[in-house]
Task: inverse folding
């Protein structure tokens, strides 16, 4: 799939000279290749908004065109690169709906999990999303136990679990300071039952969400 992504960019570059000379706001009724070339041009100009708009037109005019498959992957990767993870997941969901099959579904679902993982480099992500993603990773490993992405997925799972451990520790400390003993005991028990509690670790100097997730794995 990654080779397909790179190859598609090369092919697009060869044909960019043949793009329509119409102004962006006047584009309509183009061939699928012309839309594809325009989207690549938008991305080269760092104009994701225009690329999104042109994909919408392309998908409307060419509902089942094979070029949509490559375009969806390219747009998903572009939004991941710009840390726009919700839009990346939108395109990955579109890909699964239109082109998902037994040959590519493991890769696309891996990209969706990675987009969620990378989103935690951005502050103020919620605990519920983190816990939901952990369950999604566990389900992924059960569904695809022998794919090439398992090691990467396991690394993400470890970092998520470590982040939860530090979050629980911070919450427990807060409850203890506030003399909310019942709540403190609940989180204290969670910490004591965690596998990370038995490991001698150096506590991160940065806030847990930054220390854990800004390191990245790719």
Result:
């Amino acid at each position: 799939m990654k080779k397909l992504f790179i190859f598609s960019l090369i092919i697009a570059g060869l044909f960019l000279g043949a793009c329509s000379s119409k102004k962006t706001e006047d584009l309509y009724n183009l061939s699928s290749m012309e839309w594809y070339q325009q989207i690549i041009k938008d991305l080269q100009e760092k104009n994701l908004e225009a690329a999104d708009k042109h994909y919408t037109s392309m998908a409307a005019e060419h509902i089942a065109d094979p070029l949509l498959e490559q375009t969806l992957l390219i747009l998903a990767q572009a939004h991941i690169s710009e840390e726009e993870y919700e839009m990346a997941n939108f395109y990955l969901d579109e890909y699964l709906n239109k082109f998902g099959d037994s040959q590519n579904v493991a890769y696309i679902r891996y990209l969706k999990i990675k987009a969620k993982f990378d989103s935690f480099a951005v502050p103020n992500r919620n605990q519920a999303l983190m816990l939901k993603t952990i369950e999604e990773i566990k389900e992924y490993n059960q569904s695809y136990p022998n794919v090439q992405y398992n090691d990467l997925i396991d690394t993400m799972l470890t970092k998520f679990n470590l982040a939860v451990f530090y979050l629980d520790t911070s919450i427990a400390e807060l409850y203890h300071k506030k003399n909310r003993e019942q709540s403190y005991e609940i989180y204290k028990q969670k910490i004591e039952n965690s596998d990370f509690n038995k490991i001698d670790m150096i506590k991160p100097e940065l806030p847990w969400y930054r220390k854990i997730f800004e390191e990245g794995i790719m």
User: Anything to note?
Assistant: The radius of gyration is 22 Å. Residues 3-7, 14-24, 213-218 have pLDDT under 50 and may be disordered.
